[in-house]
Amino acid sequence: MISKTCGYAIRGIVFLSLEQNKSTKHGILEIAEDLQIPQHFLGKILQDLVRRGIISSIKGPHGGFFVNSKTIDTPLIEVVEAIDGLGIFKKCFLGREECSSINPCPLHDEFDGCRSAIFKTFENLKISDLVKKIDIGDSYLSLNKEFATEI
Amino acid sequence: MISKTCGYAIRGIVFLSLEQNKSTKHGILEIAEDLQIPQHFLGKILQDLVRRGIISSIKGPHGGFFVNSKTIDTPLIEVVEAIDGLGIFKKCFLGREECSSINPCPLHDEFDGCRSAIFKTFENLKISDLVKKIDIGDSYLSLNKEFATEI
DNA sequence: TTTGATAAAGATATTAAGGTCTTTTATTCT
DNA sequence: AGAATAAAAGACCTTAATATCTTTATCAAA
Question: Which neighbouring-strand residues pair with A66?
Fold first, then answer.
C-alpha cells in the first residue's frame, strides 16, 4: 500500500517522538542503526520531513534531528502525502488509467470501501497515537529479523 | 496492493471469459489492443497463466488464447498467487522485516483487519463474478484514457 | 579563526517492475 | 514439403524504487 520509504519516514518520526527521545537531538547514524534502516537513505527521507516542517534539524557538532511543536500532532496522512502523494489512494486495482465510481473496473466497488477506510485511518491517526502504543509496550518499531524470529 | 502485472492478468482472463468471447480463440494482438496493455508483456503474463492451467492456448494459424473448463471458476486469489505470490498479504506496513500479531508494528492492528478482508474477497471472488458485472454492464475492463476523461 | 562534527546535497549504483524486440517452436494450410 | 501464422521463449531495454558514496554547507567549541 504505502511505500517502504514512507514506512521508514513514519518510523523515523516516531523514533524521535518517543518519550525517552523527544527531549534530545539524534544523529542520523544513531537513528538508522536503531531502526535498521540504511543510513544515507533515511537521511534523505528525514531531510524531506524537515523541509515540510514535520521535524527539525540542526547541523554541526551536537546537531541532529529532533521533534518540534508540530511533530507529535502530525496526522499520518500528512507523512504519506509528503512521501508517496495521495495518488496511491486512487490507483485502479486492475491497472487501468482511470477508475472511479462513474468509470469503475470490476473490482472497484469491492475494494473502494476498504481503501477509503485506510485513508480515513491515516487521517485520524497521529504520530502521538503510535508513540503511545510503543511507550505502553504493545508494539515495536525497530525489531530486526534476528530478534523477531526469537519470539 | 496487487501489482499492475497482476491486474493485467485478471483483465486478460476476464476478457477471454466474456460471453461474447468465450467460445473463440483470441490472438495476443487482439487482446492487448482491446485492453490497452503492451502486447508482448501481456503475452508473457498469459503464458504464465497457461502454465498454471488457468487458461489454454494453441500455437499456429487460427491459434490463440482461450478459456478452458477451469477458467471461469478460478478464484482471484489463485491469479494473485500465480503472479504476485501471497507474500503481499504479509508485508509490514512500516517496512520492518517481520510483522505479525506477536511482533506487531504500531500500525499492524489498525490495518490487519482490512488486509484480511481484502484477502478473503480475493478468495471468494471468481472470474465469473467479474464477468457478470461486465455482461450486466455496470463495470468496465478496457476503457482507455480518452474515453475515461470524456465521461 | 581553525577544526571537527554533522546535516544537506549531489552523484552514482543496484534492484525490481514494467516493457520491447528478436528468435524459436508448434501448427495449419496450400 | 514448404510457407504462413501464432504462441513460447529468450534477450534486452527503461523506469522507478531503493540504497550507497562523496562532497559541501553549517554550526559549535576550542
Answer: A56
Distance from the Cα of A61 to chain B's closest Cα (Å) equals 31
CATH code of the domain covering residue A68: 1.10.10.10
Query: How many domains would you assign to chain A?
Result: 1
pLDDT at A64 (0 to 100): 97
The string of DSSP codes covering B58-103 is E-STT-EEE--TTGGG-BHHHHHHHHT-GGGGT--TT--S--BTTB
Model pLDDT, residue B146: 46
CB within 8 A of A65, min separation 6: which ones? A12, A16, A25, A26, A27, A28, A31, A46, A50, A55, A56, A57
Cell of B74: 478460478
The tens digit of pLDDT for each residue in B65-95 reads: 999 999 999 999 999 999 999 999 999 999 9
Query: Which residue range(s) make up the domain with A40?
Result: 4-85+127-139
A44 part of a folded domain: yes
A112 belongs to a structural domain: no
Domain assignment present for A91: no
Is nucleic acid strand D under 7 Å from B43's C-beta? yes
CB B89 within 8 A of CB A89: no
Which helix (H) or strand (E) covers residue B29, if one does? helix B28-35
The angle at the Cα of A25, spanning A64 to A42, to the nearest 5 degrees, equals 50
Hunting for cell 490472438 — which residue is that? Answer: B27
Question: How far apart are the CA of A2 and the nearest CA of chain B, in angstroms?
Answer: 7
pLDDT digits (tens, 9 = 90+) for B21-64: 999 999 999 999 999 999 999 999 999 999 999 999 999 999 99
| Residue B151 confidence (pLDDT) above 50 | no
User: Is A121 in Cβ contact with B95 (below 8 Å)?
Assistant: no
